[in-house]
Design goal:
Elements (H helix, E strand, L loop, with lengths): L1 H7 L9 H10 L16 E9 L10 H11 L6 E5 L13 H23 L1 E11 L1 H16 L6 E8 L13 H13 L1 H7 L7 H5 L5 H7 L3 E7 L8 H4 L13 E2 L9 E3 L2 E3 L10 E2 L18 H4 L1 H40 L5 H12 L7 H19 L2 H25 L9 H4 L26 E2 L11 E2 L2 H16 L19 H10 L4 E6 L6 H4 L10 H24 L2
Helix pairs in contact: 2-3, 3-20, 4-5, 4-13, 4-14, 5-9, 6-7, 12-15, 17-20
C-alpha cells in the first residue's frame, strides 16, 4: 500500500489564492487529528477549473491565471469556484509525451473530485480546462478520453482556453541554417513530447486529435465556449501561426508593421504600473508600406523601463550573454536536455499506466451515484493536496534546472533573431532581465504605491499578501466586461479578408497534415485573442508566470480574458432563473 500511495504522490498545486482563496480556505477542512466529514450537510455545486502548465513547467506558472479566475468569477456565479493545478507531470516529466502526461492529469482530476466531495461536500458538476503551451495539447487529449468514458454525461464542460499552445505543431519557418537545424534536431531534444509537437511521431497524434471523427475533436465540441490567446511576436517557442491556428505568418517583417489595439480598452493598475490589455485589432494593424505615418517610432508600450530599453545596455547584455552562453552554457543545457530526453524515452517504455476507466467507475459510483468514497482514493487525494501545498512554496532543484533550460532555449532563439535581423524593437520591462527575482507568491511583498500616485476609479481587487490592505490589482471589472462584449463579435468572427496583414505574401506553405489540422480546428467556434507584449519573453508573459507585479501587461490581458468568462457565466445564470 505504501508503494501505491508513494506512486500517487505526484506534486500538484491546487492551492487557491486571492480573496476567493480565503473564502474557499474557510470551507476546506484539514486532517488534524479529527475525523474527516462524511458528506453531511448541504451539498454545494462546484465548478472545477483545471489549469494545465506546459513544457519544462510547473503548477506555479498558472498561479496568476488561478488568482484571476477566483477573483473574477466567484462573484458572478452561485457555484463554488475551485481550481486545480496538476503538477504530477511537472518539469522534466513533461518530456514523457502527451498521452502519459494526460493520464497523470486525469488521475489528478478524479482524485480531486473525490476529495472535494468527501471533505467539503462539493459536488463537481461543471468543469473548465485551461491549457498553457504544451498543456493545451495535453488538455485536448484529456478531453477526448473523458468524452470516451462518458464523464461529460455527469459533468458539464463549460470553458476551454489555450494560451500560446502549438495546435499546429512546432515549426521554424525561415529558410536559413538555424531554422533548418532547429527543425531537424528539435524533435530529439524533448523526449516523446518533442516528436509529437514536431509531428514526427509514428501516429501523428496532433493530426489524429484534429480529425472531426476522433474522440478528441468530439469531446472538444462538448465545451460551451472555446477561447485562445496567441502571441503575435516575441514568442520564440510557439509561433503565432500555430497558436492562432492559421496558415498565415503576418508579423515576420516586424519593423514594417504598425500595430493597433482594440479600441477603448480600459487602463488598470497592476502593482505600480498603469497598463491596458494588449489585444491587437487585426483589422486596423497594417504594413507601413500601406499607411503614411512619418512619426511612427515603433510599436512602443507603456510600463517599460527606460534603462532596460536602452540599446547600448541591451547590446552589452547580448555580448556578455554570448561570451558565456556559446562556449559554456548552451552545450551544457543541450546535453542535459538530450540526457533527459533519452531517460524519458526509456522510462515511458516500462511505466505502469493508471487504469483511468476503473478510477472513473469508482468516482461515478461514489460521487455521482451516492456510494461511499474509496478509502485509498481519499488518502491518495489528500496526500496530493498536501504535497501541492508544499510544492507551492518551492519548486525543487528539478524545477530550477528545467526552468534554466527553458530560459536558455529562449536565449538561443533570441540570439538567432538578433543576428538574422528579425528582432523587433523589444523594450524589456524590469522583469525581462531580472532573472534572479523569485516568483511572486501569495506571501510576496512589494513596494506600495506612493500616496501621490493618481488612482483610477476601479473595483479594487486585493490579492492575499503579507500586507492584507495592500492592493496589488486595481481593475474595473464591469468596464472590462462591457468592452469585452463590444469586441466579442470581432474576435469571434475571424475573416482573413478583413485583415490587411493576412495576404499572399504572408501565407505560409505548410505540409498537408498541418493544413488538415488548421482546416478542421477552425470549424470549431473559437474566440481568438491576438496579443502583443513588447517584452523579451512573451511566452512567459502571456500567462504572467512570475506574478502580477512582474508581468503587469500579461496580468491585465488575463483579466480581459476573464471578462469573456464573466459575460458567459452571467448570461447562463440569467437564463436559468
Amino acid at each position: 500500500m505504501a508503494d501505491r500511495i508513494d506512486r500517487l504522490k505526484d506534486d500538484v498545486d491546487d492551492r487557491v489564492k486571492g480573496d476567493a482563496y480565503d473564502r474557499l480556505k474557510s470551507d476546506r477542512l484539514r486532517d488534524d487529528g479529527e475525523n474527516r466529514p462524511k458528506g453531511d450537510g448541504e451539498v454545494k455545486s462546484a465548478h472545477l477549473f483545471v489549469l494545465v502548465h506546459g513544457l519544462w513547467g510547473g503548477p506555479n506558472h498558472m498561479s496568476t491565471i488561478e488568482r484571476a479566475i477566483l477573483d473574477g468569477l466567484s462573484t458572478v456565479t452561485d457555484d463554488k469556484i475551485v481550481t486545480l493545478k496538476p503538477s504530477s507531470f511537472r518539469f522534466w516529466k513533461t518530456y514523457d509525451g502527451i498521452q502519459v502526461n494526460a493520464e497523470r492529469v486525469m488521475t489528478d482530476i478524479l482524485y480531486e473530485i473525490e476529495t472535494l466531495k468527501e471533505k467539503q461536500n462539493y459536488h463537481v458538476n461543471k468543469i473548465s480546462i485551461i491549457g498553457y503551451s504544451l498543456g493545451g495539447l495535453i488538455s485536448r487529449y484529456v478531453i477526448g478520453k473523458f468524452y470516451e468514458l462518458g464523464v461529460f454525461s455527469y459533468i458539464e464542460p463549460v470553458f476551454f482556453t489555450t494560451f500560446a499552445t502549438p495546435h499546429v505543431g512546432v515549426e521554424f519557418l525561415n529558410d536559413n541554417f538555424f531554422d533548418k537545424t532547429a527543425n531537424a534536431l528539435g524533435q530529439y531534444l524533448f523526449g516523446k513530447s518533442g516528436r509529437q509537437i514536431f509531428i514526427t511521431d509514428h501516429e501523428h497524434l496532433l493530426v489524429k486529435m484534429a480529425d472531426p471523427n476522433s474522440i478528441y475533436y468530439q469531446g472538444l465540441l462538448k465545451f460551451k465556449k472555446h477561447l485562445l490567446l496567441a502571441n503575435v511576436k516575441n514568442d520564440r517557442t510557439v509561433a503565432f501561426f500555430t497558436s492562432f491556428i492559421t496558415d498565415y505568418a503576418p508579423f515576420e517583417d516586424w519593423n514594417k508593421i504598425k500595430i493597433e489595439y482594440l479600441s477603448n480598452l480600459p487602463q488598470s493598475r497592476i502593482g505600480n504600473h498603469y497598463v491596458k490589455p494588449k489585444v491587437i485589432d487585426l483589422k486596423l494593424s497594417n504594413s507601413l508600406d500601406e499607411i503614411s505615418d512619418d512619426d511612427f517610432k515603433g510599436n512602443m508600450q507603456e510600463a517599460t523601463s527606460i534603462l532596460r530599453s536602452n540599446k547600448v545596455f541591451k547590446f552589452l547584455i547580448i555580448i556578455v550573454g554570448a561570451l558565456f552562453l556559446i562556449p559554456i552554457w548552451i552545450p551544457l543545457v543541450l546535453i542535459s536536455s538530450l540526457i533527459a530526453s533519452i531517460y524519458s524515452m526509456v522510462k515511458i517504455r516500462i511505466l505502469n499506466h493508471p487504469n483511468i476507466k476503473k478510477h472513473w467507475q469508482r468516482v461515478l459510483n461514489s460521487v455521482y451515484q451516492g456510494g461511499p468514497i474509496d478509502e485509498d482514493d481519499f488518502k491518495a487525494g489528500q496526500a496530493r493536496r498536501d504535497q501541492r501545498d508544499r510544492l507551492s512554496q518551492h519548486e525543487s532543484f528539478k524545477g530550477d534546472t528545467s526552468e534554466l533550460t527553458e530560459n536558455t532555449m529562449e536565449n538561443i532563439l533570441y540570439a538567432e533573431e538578433r543576428f538574422t535581423g528579425k528582432l523587433s524593437d523589444v523594450n524589456p520591462d524590469d522583469d525581462d532581465f531580472d532573472r534572479g527575482r523569485d516568483y511572486e507568491s501569495s506571501e510576496g511583498s512589494g513596494n506600495e504605491l506612493n500616496d501621490s500616485t493618481p488612482k483610477p476609479t476601479a473595483i479594487s481587487t486585493s490579492i492575499n499578501t503579507s500586507k492584507p490592505t495592500e492592493k496589488i490589482i486595481d481593475i474595473n471589472k464591469d468596464l472590462n466586461d462591457k468592452l469585452a462584449a463590444t469586441h466579442l463579435s470581432h474576435l469571434k468572427n475571424i475573416n482573413y479578408n478583413e485583415y490587411p496583414l493576412f495576404n499572399k505574401d504572408t501565407k505560409v506553405n505548410l505540409l498537408d497534415n498541418k493544413k488538415f489540422i488548421i482546416e478542421n480546428l477552425n470549424k470549431i467556434d473559437w474566440i481568438k485573442l491576438p496579443v502583443y507584449q513588447d517584452s523579451f519573453n512573451a511566452h512567459d508573459g502571456i500567462v504572467a508566470r512570475r506574478g502580477e507585479r512582474t508581468s503587469p501587461k500579461g496580468t491585465t490581458t488575463i483579466y480581459f480574458w476573464i471578462s469573456f468568462l464573466r459575460i458567459f457565466t452571467k448570461s447562463d445564470k440569467e437564463s436559468t432563473k
